[in-house]
Specification:
alpha/beta, Rossmann fold, six-stranded mixed sheet, 5 helices, 6 strands, His_PPase_superfam, His_Pase_superF_clade-1
Length: 238
């Protein structure tokens, strides 16, 4: 795996900081209650399902166990959307830590937001002009823009954690599938355009950016709630 110097989009390390190493864990939120299968995007009012709350509790267990094993979390942050805030809540309570609300790890903008049965809707010619460039993509926030804001957030949060807690600090950020996935694609020097069905970013999965003096040095992936995924419903707009 060849990792790209993160300065291509945004510098992850600064000559004015003492940062040497840090890890930013990008956690996708839990399952959302969405019986109408709406592509909810940034819409308000979409909180976790009962299973999603169990997933959030599992994430709290996972990071608490890591802390007991000598890998404590030093900083918690989350997207302002309800599903992300509800996912981080049990972890914040378990670790007795405050949560920073981070706008830059928000869900991607999407012109199809609010639609249900999206595949059927896209058969209508009214939507076809939005489908002309899947590489950008033409229906929403450019992939490169998502990566830039995610990396900027990771840079600032990791530097804050290192400044307060020293080398090797760990940060947990609750975010959303698409911004997390394209950030991983960028770090692994892969094209940002992709088939959404092939994303490796399951509900409450952890995509960890391991950061060194020159930026993102490696990426790792884990699914601590893997046993719960078989009961999850694949919902759009996650």
């Amino acid at each position: 795996m060849r990792l790209r110097d993160s300065a291509t989009l945004v510098p992850m390390a600064s000559s004015t900081t003492a940062q040497t190493t840090a890890t930013v864990h990008l956690v996708r939120h839990g399952e959302v209650h969405n019986p109408e299968k709406v592509l909810y995007g940034r819409l308000p009012g979409f909180g976790l399902s009962e299973l999603g709350h169990r997933m959030a509790a599992g994430i709290a267990d996972h990071f608490a166990a890591r802390a007991e094993a000598g890998h404590p979390v030093h900083l918690l942050a989350a997207s302002p959307l309800q599903r992300a805030q509800e996912t981080v809540a049990p972890l914040a309570e378990r670790l007795d830590m405050p949560v920073l609300t981070e706008e830059r790890v928000l869900e991607a903008e999407n012109a199809f937001e609010g639609l249900s049965r999206v595949k059927q809707q896209l058969r209508s010619p009214r939507w076809w002009p939005l489908l002309v460039n899947p590489l950008r993509p033409s229906w929403g926030e450019p992939y490169a823009q998502q990566v830039s804001r995610m990396l900027a957030a990771a840079k600032d949060l990791s530097e804050l954690a290192v400044a307060e807690h020293g080398d090797g600090a760990e940060v947990v950020v609750i975010s959303h599938q698409l911004p997390i996935w394209v950030t991983r694609l960028w770090a692994e020097d892969r094209p940002l355009w992709h088939d959404p069905r092939r994303r490796e970013c399951s509900l409450t999965s952890i995509t960890s950016l391991h950061i060194g003096p020159d930026g993102v040095e490696s990426v790792s992936y884990a699914e601590p709630n893997k046993e719960l995924l078989k009961d999850a419903i694949a919902l759009p707009g996650a």
